[in-house]
Design brief:
Layout lengths: L4 E6 L1 H5 L3 H10 L3 E8 L3 H7 L9 H9 L3 E7 L3 H9 L12 H5 L8 E3 L3 H11 L7
Antiparallel strand pairs: 1-3, 1-4, 2-3
Bound molecules: guanosine-5'-diphosphate.
């Protein structure tokens, strides 16, 4: 994957609360183009693999339970400086610390249930996109 792309998920909390449309609108308004997207649900195995880097963290069980509890929207987004700009758009991990107007400030309820995922590096964006999409599903 080229470096002007990032990977996102609208997490089960935001999907369940009916925020898909509002979040996609803000993503588009911020200049991101959607180049892949699907409505899906993570299995236990999927979530454990996706978040394997956090396996030793005390909140890992909670994170896997949360991310598997309902459907998500997974997408690949394109924009110059996509990874960093999308991290700015989503805001801090903890919505209490997220800047005004960020997606987590607007839609998240807690540090765990924080509405939106955004890749933290170009390398992880490529790995995460490939986890969810085949080459022919990304445009
Ligand atoms: P991110 O890059 O901002 O998503 O944050 P991290 O990579 O540090 O954590 C990954 C995800 O794990 C977060 O987005 C949260 O959903 C979850 N998480 C992080 N810290 C905590 C915590 O203290 N408790 C719980 N329950 N979940 C957490």
């Amino acid at each position: 994957m080229v470096t002007n792309r990032t990977f996102t998920m609208i997490k089960p909390d935001a999907v369940a609360q009916g925020h898909i449309g509002a979040i996609l609108e803000k993503i588009n308004a911020a200049g991101f183009k959607i180049v892949a997207m699907k409505y899906t649900q993570l299995s236990q195995r999927d979530a454990e693999a996706f978040y394997a880097v956090h396996a030793a963290r005390p909140f890992f069980g909670e994170l896997v339970a949360f991310m598997t509890r309902g459907p998500i929207v997974a997408a690949v987004l394109e924009k110059d400086n996509a990874v960093a700009d999308f991290r700015t758009l989503i805001g801090a991990t903890n919505p209490a610390e997220a800047a005004e107007g960020t997606l987590r400030k607007l839609f998240a309820t807690s540090v765990g249930e924080n509405a939106v995922h955004g890749s933290d590096s170009d390398a992880n964006a490529a790995i995460e996109a490939a986890f969810h999409f085949s080459g022919r599903e990304i445009f």
